[in-house]
Predict the 3D structure of the following.
Amino acid sequence: MSAPTQSPETRTSSVGQNAPRPAGNASAAAALEVRGLTVHYGHIEAVRGIDLTLEPGGITALVGANGAGKSTTLLALSGLLPKLAGSVVFNGEDITRLAPHQIVARGIVQVPEGRAILTTMTVRENLELGAYRLGGNAAAKDFDYVFALFPRLKERLDGVAGNLSGGEQQMLAIARALMAKPRLLLLDEPSMGLAPIVVQEIFRALRSINADGLTLFLVEQNVRQALKIAQRGYVLENGSLALSGSGKELLNHPRVLQAYLGV
Ligand code: ATP
C-alpha cells in the first residue's frame, strides 16, 4: 500500500517564472499539467490517478522501483497508451486525447526505455530520422549542437549504430530526440544498464541540455542521480504517488533514504 501523498511541494520554489530562453535544440520552454492520470492494462491498475506539474525550463523526476508505473506514465503522456481517466494540458492546450503524432507535433519527444535506436543504420541516419518531425531536414547547426554535447557521436558518425557501446547508444537516443527540436523531452531510464562513469556523463549532458532551456521529465530507477539534478521530484509506488517535493527535500526524506537509497 502506498502512503498518502505528502506535500512538501507547497514549499517548493518554482523554476518556471523566469525560465531561460532556449539556446540549444529546444523550441521554447514548456509546461505540462497532469491531473488524475489513470492507466490500466486490462485489470492491472498500473497508474492510479496521479497529478504531476512540470514547470517550464525545469527538470522534473519521476522515480520509483521496478514496476511502479513509471514507463506506463510516460507512454500515456506520449499517447502510446490509452488513458482511462485524467487530463493532460501542455502549455494551456488540452492534449489528453491527441494521437502520438499530434503530441510529437506539439514538441513532446520521448527517449524510450532501451533506447530503440536503429542498429543497422548509421549514427548519421539515426540523427537524420530525429529531424523527421521538422520535415526531415536536419540542419548543420543541429548536428553541431549534438556533437558538442556528445563528441563521440561525431567520431562514429558513419559507423553502424549497433556497434556503439551502451552509453554511446544512449547518447545517440538523446541526440536523435534533440534533432527534433523538442519543447519537452521525456526520458525513460537513461541510466539503465550503464557503468557509473557513463551515467555521470549522461547526467552532465542532461544538465547542459536543461541549462540551454529545454524542459525535462526524467523517469529513473537511479533515484539518487535523478533527484540530484531535478528541481522537483515525484515518488511513484504501485501506480500511486507516495511523495512529492523538491529534489533536495526528497533526497533527504527518511522514506526515500530508507526505501531507495539504502541508508
Ligand atoms: P520498469 O522500471 O521495470 O520499467 P516501471 O515503473 O516503468 O518499471 P511499468 O513498466 O510502467 O513500471 O509497469 C507498471 C505495472 O504495469 C507493472 O505491474 C507491470 O507488470 C505492468 N505492465 C507493464 N506493461 C504491461 C503490459 N504490456 N501488459 C500488462 N501489464 C503491464
Observations:
- The two ends are 22 Å apart (CA to CA).
- Residues 1-21 have pLDDT under 50 and may be disordered.
